[in-house]
Write a structure and sequence with these properties.
This protein is α/β, with parallel strands linked by helices. 40% of the residues lie in helices and 23% in strands. The strands form three sheets. It has a six-stranded mixed β-sheet, with helices on both faces. Strand 7 and strand 8 form a beta hairpin. The N terminus is likely disordered.
């Protein structure tokens, strides 16, 4: 669809089939200095993401044709778009819909009707975290190791024996934090505050869903010499394993 690039900052893609939502977000994004792309279907959203590579995508779950969860899965499985943060919107508030969105690779989730203030706080937090993770850190150690797993915090890679493991930005942030503090229990509230810049009371069980995805991806990649364990009543830790 049409590109509105009146802002001088980051570019955000809005994918929603409700015209009034697209207009509201486009107007508020450009007023805050963001460039704005928009699409009304999942297919159009995928095309825009692959063509323009926006800095963040605001993606509705309920879309005609390909729904938002499937769009998110496709984005996160495509090397061209897998690192773009995805903030999912939905009129559904049931926990199972949030879980499906996170399992599809979404980095954050907000339900309709939403506060514009809250939405833009989430947008800014996601962009800030990506900038911190992908920015160069010259002169500082940037490789972390445990077992066959290595974390390149400068280039934003997780590797197993030199082979890249495809992780979403949220998954990378969590794994990076665990490896940095390997052997120590990292609490869920600390993850929410430090990694996602949100109050734990508002986050539900999203970290647990991300951890389930991480464990599966590490297992599928054949990572050895370490394991992630649940610390009951607290959070998670990663430990070396013979």
């Amino acid at each position: 669809m049409v590109v509105d690039d009146s802002g001088s900052g980051k570019t955000i893609l809005v994918v929603d089939d409700e015209e009034h939502v697209v207009k509201l977000l486009s107007m508020n994004l450009t007023s805050r200095g963001y460039g704005c792309l928009y699409a009304y279907t999942g297919e159009e959203g995928l095309e825009q993401a692959r063509l323009h590579h926006p800095d963040l995508i605001i993606l509705d779950v309920m879309l005609p044709g390909i729904d938002g969860i499937e769009v998110c899965r496709l984005l996160k499985s495509d090397p061209r778009t897998q690192l773009i943060p995805v903030l999912m919107l939905s009129a559904k508030s049931e926990g199972i819909d949030k879980i499906h969105g996170l399992e599809g690779g979404a980095d954050d989730y907000i339900t309709k009707p939403f506060s514009l203030t809250e939405l833009f706080l989430r947008v800014e937090a996601s962009l800030r975290q990506i900038a911190l993770l992908t920015g160069a850190r010259s002169g500082r150690p940037h490789m972390l190791f445990i077992g066959s797993l290595s974390i390149d915090t400068e280039r934003y890679f997780a590797l197993n024996g030199g082979e890249k493991i495809d992780l979403t930005p949220a998954e990378f942030k969590i794994l990076n934090m665990l490896v940095k503090h390997q052997g120590e229990a990292v609490s869920r509230p600390l993850m929410y505050r430090e990694l996602f810049d949100k109050d734990p009371a508002d986050a539900g069980r999203s970290v647990d869903v991300h951890l389930r995805n991480i464990r599966k991806k590490l297992n599928d990649a054949g990572v050895t010499g370490c394991r992630i364990e649940t610390v009951h009543g607290s959070g998670y830790r990663i430990l070396p394993q013979p």
